[in-house]
Amino acid sequence: MNGTAVPDEAYYSGNSMRGIFVPGEKLRLADETPFEQLRAGDVAVNFGRMPYIVHRVVGIRDGVAVTMGDNNDRPDAWPLNPSTPFRIVTGVFSADGTVRPVAGGEAGMRQFRSQQRKRKTRRIAGCLVRPLRPLKILRLPARRETRFRDGTVQWSFAGIPVAARGPSGRTMYLHWSKRLFFRVPEREDGKNGKDRFSGSSET
Known about the structure:
Layout: E1 10-11, E2 26-29, E3 43-46, E4 53-61, E5 64-68, E6 86-93, E7 99-101, H1 105-129, E8 140-141, E9 144-147, E10 153-157, E11 160-165, E12 171-173, H2 178-181, E13 182-183
Parallel strand pairs: 8-13
Antiparallel strand pairs: 1-2, 2-6, 3-4, 3-6, 4-5, 6-7, 9-10, 10-11, 11-12
């Protein structure tokens, strides 16, 4: 890195890395990592942006590391470079203090490809489920809210995370099947904007 001071901890929020992280989880960060040691498949926190972005390195070329959320359909517009303050995510702290490891390198790329296949499956499932939306009154209401510093709201039912809504207002179900069984509050203005995917803050 370039010696720029970065925070010692970070928290995840958003939907771009769901399946790997749960909103509100505290991330374990590696000590300073030279840019030259970055590998495709590593998950990095980009501290050069606000809010902080937690995405995976999907390629390194021409002196920059291209990053992308595992559930996004395109790479980020802000790649990492040798002057970008960043940290590698090596694990996630659980409520009991244990650490769940986060895959990097080739294992991380396998995980990325798996998440991308799931994303495509969710998109197809969403098209199939859309005609059933008039039956949403039959679904269970997920009303318990968890709010994060960047404006993200997550709803759960009986402790089960169901969906999250980003600062821009787009609602994302955490699994396509949860759309069939649960419903979340509608936006007051009834609109549904393009979501911003990011990893940044805690409640």
